[in-house]
Amino acid sequence: MAGSEVENARCFLKYYQTGQIVKDFPDAHRGEMKRTDVRVGLFGLTGSGKSSFVNTVSRCVEGKDMELAMVQSSGAEGTVILEEFGFGGEGTDKPGFRLLDTRGFDILGEDANKEMLAILNGDIRDGQFIDRGKSIKTSMLGHDYQLSREIHVVLWFVKGTDPRLESGTYQSHMQFLRMQLLNRAMKTLTIITHDDELQRKGCTEQQRQDIVELARQITGSDRDQTYFVTNYMMEKPFPTERVQQVLDIVKIALNAAEHTIRMRQSKRKQHNRMVNLSN
Ligand SMILES: Nc1nc2c(ncn2[C@@H]2O[C@H](COP(=O)(O)OP(=O)(O)O)[C@@H](O)[C@H]2O)c(=O)[nH]1
Ligand SMILES: [Mg+2]
Prior knowledge:
Elements: H1 2-14, H2 32-35, E1 38-43, H3 50-62, E2 79-81, E3 83-87, E4 97-101, H4 110-121, E5 129-131, E6 153-159, H5 164-167, H6 169-173, H7 175-183, E7 188-193, H8 195-200, H9 205-219, E8 226-228, H10 240-278
Parallel strand pairs: 1-4, 1-6, 6-7, 7-8
Antiparallel strand pairs: 2-5, 3-4
Magnesium ion binds near residues 50, 51, 73, 101 and 103.
């Protein structure tokens, strides 16, 4: 039974096409859904497990045992790269969703803020290097939405075993991102990684709840939008329950993203109507 459930979830994601969950997009432009792929932004400090998650999804959806995203890599000083990884849409000419692996936001400041915004707005694409010295043309308000380019849902990664969680240094660190997500009404799921290490340390239920609460103070996600995850490690066994858990989280993220797309299409339509009325 469990095996077929996991197989169904895997199959769903492998063939997933944008719009398949919500289905009804009354305010979409003609052909828009066919052109759009869901863009899932992975944020979080270096070492929180974002790149490992890309590889974990690849393993769970496609059964691939290889490193797509470079784990534990740090960008050269002053440089940030955004990497996109397409999944789903098997048999069609475009992926159904993309995971956008970000890095380099450990350094605070105006430049880092601009980069985060540019990624959220879709002004930085795959493999593009960001020269921190140069200005990036992006809206600080995030009003000029380009639906097919911007991010539709955020997975915010927190390392469950990170001692900085307790000290509270995290909270202020990514407040800018939190504000931006709030302003955009962006659905955010909190992913607490290194669950295997927590289990190995004999973490109690109470301690887990405390970690959820600490993570919530950083990301603002509710408890029911917070998930513990163990990432897949090359050549290590990865039990079916863990596969199922990862597939479930991806599907929840896609659902949220489709709702974002539908909401923004409706907002766009309302906006255009207002503009027409005032002309
Ligand atoms: N034990 C364990 N190690 C993990 C987990 N997720 C990531 N790691 C390790 O943590 C380190 C940082 O992971 P990485 O994916 O590069 O983090 P990123 O900087 O956010 O992309 C690597 O050595 C990973 O192997 C996990 O769930 N459990
Ligand atoms: Mg990384």
